[in-house]
Structure formats: C-alpha cells, structure tokens
Amino acid sequence: MEPKTAQNEKFFIVLRGKSRKGFCRGCIGRVEAETQRGELMGLLYGSGSSGSPKNGGIVRREDTYPLSRHQAQLLLFVTSASKRLELLCNPQLFSAICELSQDDLVVVKHKKGHLPGLVKNLMQIGRKENKDDLHMLGFEVEFVDSDHSLSTKKPAPLPLFSAADIVQVVPSYSVPLGLHWRDGKCGGLNRKAVTRINSMPHISSHARQVRENHTEQSVTQNQCLSTSHVSLEVGSMVEVVSNSGITVYGVIRWLGVPGGKAAEWAGIELDFEVKGCSDGTYGGQRYFTCKESRALFVPITKCSPDSRFVCLSTEGETLKPTETPPVPPFDDSEEDAPPVPESEALSLLVGRMKGIQGHINSCYLDATLFSLFSSSVTLDSICQIPADTEKPITCTLRTIVNRLRRQGFVPAESVMNFRKQLGCDTFRTDEKDPEEFITVLFQKVLCLEPLLKLRSKSETSQGAYTFQIFLEKEQMGPMPTVQQLLETSCLSGDLKFETMPSCLIVQMPRFGNKYKMFSHIIPSTELDVTDLLYNSPRECFVCGCLAEYECLQCLSDHKLQPGRIKQYCTTCNKQVHAHPLRQGHSPSSLPVAADVAAEAPVPRHTMQLFAVLCIQTSHYVSFVKYGPDPRSWLFFDSMADRCGDDQSGYNIPEIRACPELGDFLCQSEEDLARSNPSQAPELVRRLLCDSYLCLYQSTATPL
Fold first, then answer.
1. Is 619 one of the annotated active-site residues of the chain?
2. 116 FRET partner, CA 20 to 30 A, in 48, 527, 661, 670?
3. Catalytic residue among 277, 290, 303, 363
4. Residue 363 among the catalytic residues
C-alpha cells in the first residue's frame, strides 16, 4: 500500500529546453518545490530505466508536462526518452494504456510484427529500497492464438512490455476484473482495481480487430466489436454493408447528429464513387468536402472497422511482405504541367494515396515540395528552365512536379531518386530541417539567387533564402500574428528588405520539435511589407502623410497599437514624443526621396500566404492554399497511415480538404486575438500550435 503522501506527489516530464542542472529532454522528475520565478526544483529519475532518483535539478515549468504518479511509473519503464515523448504526443492512446484492465485486448510491437494479446498483469519492476524510489510499471501480455483461444502449450513466463510497446488498445469482452499487481522480484499477488477504458484509440491501420475464422462467428463477433467495443472516430477506416449485401469502404470524415436525426451519424469519404452519394453535403448542409459521389452518410451503428487491414499473424506464421499498390505509368514527354487550378484541385488531389508518398524520414522534403509546387504560381517559372541547360537532378525535380500536377500522386521511388542526387548521403536517410533543404534546393539544384536581399543598419546587404524571426518573447502577446512577428523582428534587428520579395519564407521562433517560443501563432493571410522596404516611401502612423522618422521604442507602446511599426512625419513625431513617457525615445530619421510629395498617397506592398509547414514530434505536414477562395485550403501528410510493418510495408500519404481553416483565418485581427485555440477544429488547432514555416508570395512580382 502506497503511503498517503503519494496522493500529493507531483511528477513531470521535460519536453524541451537546454539541459540545466541535471534535467534534459525526456527526463522524468518529481516536484520538490517551486521557485518564485516559476521554476521547478525536483528529483531526477533519469532517461534510463532506473527507479531510483539521482541528483536534484531545476527546470522551467513551461518546459515540462505534468504527470500523475501512475503515468510517471509507466513512462519510467520506457528506456528511450524519444519514445516517451512520442507516446505522450498520442494522448488518446496513452490515456487508454493508463486505464488498461485485466483481459483487455491489445496489439503490441514484437519481433514477429504487431501481435494481439491479452493483458494479464501490471508488473511492478524494481525493488523500492528507500522512500524516494519509484516502481516502474510494465504489462504482462498473453498472446492470442489464431482461433482466439488461449494457447494450451506448456506454460511459459509471460513476456513483459512497456507502454511504448503497445500500439493499439481494444476493450475486453469480459466483466471488469481489475489488474493483478505482482511484485516482479518476489512474485507476491495483490489485487488492485483499475478503471476500465470506454473507447478504442485510432491507431493507423494495424490490427483493427480480431478476425474470426468461422463465418457465423465472424459476423456475430465483428458486429459486437464494431458496435459495443470499438469507438470509431474521425479518421477511422470503416466498412459499410448495404441492404443488397455490397460492402463499401472509406474513412470517417465527420461524426455528429445531422439535422432531422436523433442518433449519431457518420459522414464517410468512400474509396470509390457510388451513385447517389454527395460531395460532403447532407440535407442541404455541408459537413465536409470531398470528390463528388464519394460522401456517404449513415448511422454510426452501420459502420464496422475496415476488415481489409487486419494484419494479425496466425500461429507459426509471420507477417507477409505487403506489396505497394500499383502506380499508374507516367509519361513525362509532354510539356510542363501548370499549377493545379482551383477548380480541379479537390478532384485531383484529395484522398488517400494522394500527394507525395513518404519514405524513410522524408516528411520534411515531401511537405516542402508539395507546398512549393502543387499550386503556387510564383515558383512555377523555376520549372521552365531550358532543357539543354538542365542538370539530371533538375530533370528529376521536373518529373516530380509534373507528376504531382497531372496525376496527384508521386511514389516514394521518385522522391528517393531525387534525394540520392542532392549530393549528401544524409539526405537519403536522416531527418532534416526544411530550411536546410530549401537552401540546397534553390542554391545548388535550381541555381537561383537568394530570394531575399536584407540591408542592415551598417548599410551592408546580404542574401538569404528564408527569414528567421529573432525577438524577445516579452515583446509580443501570448498569440502573435506573423505580421507582428516579422515587423518586430525587422525593427529589433534594424533590418529592411532591399527589394520587394517575390517569395518570402518566414521561419517561426522555434527550433525544430525541441523548443517553440509561443504556444500559438496566427499565420497572417496577407503580409504588408510596405514599412519593411528600404528607401521606400512610408506614411505617417498618425496622419497618413509622408513619414520621416521611425521609433523602435514606440513599437510596444500600449497606447499606440502595440506590435505595429511606428513612423511619423516631422509634426507628429514632435507631438507623440512630447508625452512624458516618450521623451526618452530616440526616433531615427528615414531616407526620403526628393521627388516624393509629402501629401502623395503611399502605395501598399502586400504578399499572400500560400502554404504553412508544421512540425509535431519530428513529423512535418503542410497546409496549402490552392486558389483565391478564402476556404480553398488543403492539408497534406505524406505518412498519414501505413500498411504493413516497418520492414515490408509502405506509407499512405493523404490530402484532406480543410475549408474550416479558411473560415478561421478570415476573422478580423481582433476576433482572432480573442479566439480560444482549444475550441477550434482539429486541423486549425494543429496549424496554430505547430506552424514552422509560413510561405508568402507576391503575384505582382514574378520570381
């Protein structure tokens, strides 16, 4: 029995930040005290499997994630720090693992592949020799034979699995019995009840449900699984049997109660067109967007997990290699394909096995290529290099772009061929940052001059392909826009764009998946760079006349629209800085062309957002705007799912229509600042939390 003080214990895991006084990313600790500066002082349990604390340490609260004692014990048995964080980033699965009960059906990673089994015991690992020690927790799992009866072979010690070894959880068919707590050292038994789980998390396509060998038994038990025990959700792959006995397959895109109905229904995007189906509308209302004749709406009780993706092995049989689906032949003898027009984007691009297929850490490259070339008109000219001047790698890139624009799908083999030609072996296998790939792409592959020419205070000019935001967190509010970040960064570093960029790639103030300065960032759909252009006329912030002065200290003034650049004419500069609180400011003079009239209107220079790359736990995805309509947004993931195991399977890329993103971004700046990201739709939330690169284009200035 645990001491009463255990109820008051607080545990945490370090998510990010530099190693400081003992703590590093992925470490688990117990809070001992909290400093006035919001730092946590605690005991360190380390990144290994030891249940004994090491030296104490200090870590910032914002760099940690709180854990219950039970969660800390489960994660402590996961020896890899990266695996701990990966599991934590799948909250639905981790929650289900934390609430497992005896005889719950799980699918675990095994040397033979993904295998089903029944949880038999929750094991306490390690001896608790002092009060600060923490038992690690693992699961004893009994594998299930192909006929779904327990093996009658000679009993053997049950294998032990950590929480990270469990890839799927299915509630058991039996009455809750609670888990056996058994000391791994002594073998003593103590009963301890564990709360049962109520739903199955959606984990790709591996081992959807147990498949029965006998037909009658299969129908009965599969129906039981689908209606009583498996909680389907948006993204689940399902099958529906029609009244005529025909089975159709698809992915759930919407769940809810449609108008005129009382029970929960599912909106399913089918694999193929079916007569009588819609494009995502039902009863005159749109619930999601897909190709015409592919949206089916049925009661959720009519849906069952897709039986085609059962990957469970039978006794004495290992998983067979999964063959990649056939890829349509591609003839690149035609002329270059233009960017996908808005009217054709949904029919060509939306669906599974669409976009660029991921393979071996290629998501950074897949998301970047899709963002740059699927629909952008600004970058289209770089694919029109004369054939007699092309290098082999440029020809390979041209083929990828044309294939994407004509067929809507690029197989992994084509991208791997391109990766091999990039000149460095690490591009074939390693994870890379998109900005590193962008520099190589533009500089070495396409031989383009830097997209940006930046002029500093010292009047020196330098080229760059991306713009990294640098600023102090205190200069911004809790949820800044890209417009505010760019202006503050330029003004703080005294940087200006020497010429109007045709393409501007802005890198958010974060470092990969390890650290981000702001929990949420709003990508500005329109970027006004008028006040960031060197030697360009600017208007007074107050009266609108020709500006002659600029003031850095006024940037954060709460009485003068904080976060926006402030420049003034001579008269307004004197009046604004006559205020006692601004008399210490040091406005700097702006160069003004002699032929510009003081009352002449200043033309605005704007750029349009056309793509956003996002990162979450080392995985990159992208949002792309495919047309002028505000709701014309796509979400692309080159590794959205996987068929087969790690050795013999393949990734399934997916593109989804995302009109809800356009609805959110179309709000006024004031409404966006007041919005609650936690209440936004799933993909909108992901954009706000995980944005890494924002890509802007100037349609008036071709590349």
1. yes
2. 48
3. 363
4. yes
Distances (CA, A) of 400 to 118, 369, 635: 46, 9, 19
CB 456 within 8 A of CB 498: no
Query: What's the pLDDT score for residue 203?
Result: 28
Contact status, residue 697 vs residue 378, Cβ threshold 8 Å: yes
Task: State the burial class of residue 272 (Cβ atoms within 10 Å of its Cβ: 0-12, 13-18, 19+).
Answer: exposed
| pLDDT, tens digit (0-9, with 9 covering 90-100), for 367-415 | 999 999 988 877 776 545 554 456 788 888 888 988 898 888 999 888 9
Q: Are residues 208 and 170 in contact, defined by beta-carbon separation less than 8 angstroms?
A: no
Q: One of 520, 619, 658, 694 is an active-site residue; which one?
A: 619
* Pairwise CA distance, residues 482 & 472, whole Å: 15
Q: Which long-range contacts (CB under 8 A, 24 or more apart) does 382-388 make?
A: 382/446, 382/448, 382/703, 383/336, 384/336, 385/446
Give the strand pairing for 285-286 and 650-657.
unpaired
- CA pseudo-torsion sign 308, 310, 314, 318: positive
pLDDT at position 620 is 93
Q: What percentage of the chain has pLDDT greater than the value 90?
A: 16
Q: Which of 177, 172, 264, 299 is nearest to 225 (CA)?
A: 172
DSSP 508: P
Q: What is the pLDDT of residues 5-15, one digit of tens each?
A: 555 788 988 87
Whole-prediction pTM: 0.55
Residues 310, 220: Cα–Cα separation, whole Å: 17
